[in-house]
Amino acid sequence: xxxxxxxxxxxxxxxxxxxxxxxxxxxxxxxxxxxxxxxxxxxxxxxxxxxxxxxxxxxxxxxxxxxxxxxxxxxxxxxxxxxxxxxxxxxxxxxxxxxxxxxxxxxxxxxxxxxxxxxxxxxxxxxxxxxxxxxxxxxxxxxxxxxxxxxxxxxxxxxxxxxxxxxxxxxxxxxxxxxxxxxxxxxxxxxxxxxxxxxxxxxxxxxxxxxxxxxxxxxxxxxxxxxxxxxxxxxxxxxxxxxxxxxxxxxxxxxxxxxxxxxxxxxxxxxxxxxxxxxxxxxxxxxxxxxxxxxxxxxxxxxxxxxxxxxxxxxxxxxxxxxxxxxxxxxxxxxxxxxxxxxxxxxxxxxxxxxxxxxxxxxxxxxxxxxxxxxxxxxxxxxxxxxxxxxxxxxxxxxxxxxxxxxxxxxxxxxxxx
Amino acid sequence: xxxxxxxxxxxxxxxxxxxxxxxxxxxxxxxxxxxxxxxxxxxxxxxxxxxxxxxxxxxxxxxxxxxxxxxxxxxxxxxxxxxxxxxxxxxxxxxxxxxxxxxxxxxxxxxxxxxxxxxx
Lengths: 418, 120
Known about the structure:
Distance between the termini of chain A: 53 Å
Order of helices and strands of chain B: EHEEEEHE
Strand content of chain A: under 5%
Number of helices of chain B: 2
Largest sheet of chain A: none
Number of helices of chain A: 20
Strand order of the largest sheet of chain B: 2-5-1-6
CATH topology of the domain at 1-106 in chain A: Rna Polymerase Sigma Factor, Chain: A
Helix content of chain A: over 70%
Oligomer: heterodimer
Order of helices and strands of chain A: HHHHHHHHHHHHHHHHHHHH
CATH architecture of chain B: 2-Layer Sandwich
Shape of chain A: elongated
Number of strands of chain B: 6
Radius of gyration of chain A: 25 Å
Distance between the termini of chain B: 13 Å
Structural class of chain A: mainly alpha
């Protein structure tokens, strides 16, 4: 890729959300606006390599995109020529064009909110929301999204096209929820941001232990949302959770790329600036609602780790108690398993194992590799090495991630030596 | 990647009102885009001081200071995707100075944090 080409894509990522929101204002349709902004990217890719990148590339892209939008409105008007009114409307629209920019400057938050809420509409599947958000809010190309999710480009392209059509067809392409509706719709947005983060953080499949770019994009969206909706505690909770988890990225794998358990991580590699930001976001969330929300509770748990300078300084009783609150708020077998780990640390491996054993019959965890993995760890600590080995082998057989598989096999092998 | 911008210039005073307003708008946009983490303008060097080590000795210089050609006047910390994005941001920022504060000369230095790179 040439230097100019890379420069164009960088500018594009910075400018695209603003282009979409501006066009959406003219067209009252976010998905259509997104389509038309793509034309201005193509125009830039065509002209800039020869003419050079303009002094104000953002203004150039905006002018080009607006021309596309006006052409579109005109074409629509031609088709409906009998409605004389349309022509008048367009004329007025053209005259009032400069106002779009003026209004936008004051209203950047509102417009971004509309964009985020449209991309993450609960009518769409989680996967479609994630793809659409990465495309419209983060300015990633279809190819980049496909690479991040380890899926064929055509699959992502189809996902995006279908999602946009669903929005346009159902007339949901231009709306901003407010007040109580905003809070209700927010969970659909937070869910997608966290899905994107976790997709990058845990890399469920393949060779990559993580795809840091997705974490970075999710964090950026979270910070943006916190800046434009600062009164929502769960937004700060999610930002805190992501900052605190991401602060360990450099310590989570060793030089060979193998995973390192939190207890064994070199804590000097934890990113202190990010931890501070995470703790600040947590405080803000707790000030707003007392810290009882789904994401705030999870952030509070991770904060216990972040605050511990050494692994054995971790406040496990507090973590166990936070997990109890979380399990009551959002009952789930996975949370129950995490709670068992915390109880195992706070009260000893036997207490943890008792809780884990009650989960062994849980159908939802039947193929979940972390259940036998946790069980193996507790059995190992109890000195039941043969049982532990069997559990680690079972866990290794269940995971699709090669590095995790090798890690679990090593733990199984260590049982035979012990 | 985390980047620090250091803005150095020959111009000791505050920005013109037009430039100040434009930079404020840009900062607002960048905070609401989730890219900018911190920023700040710095008082002139004469308001501060320097503690230096020379010939194995600590010394305090509390003015007067020798006029430097370019002095750091402001900074910002961003979280960005790559060097291309960092350059695009700096160009946009410096273009504002060129357009709105004639006679201003300076440098926007792009420096990446030395935090351990996230393994891939």
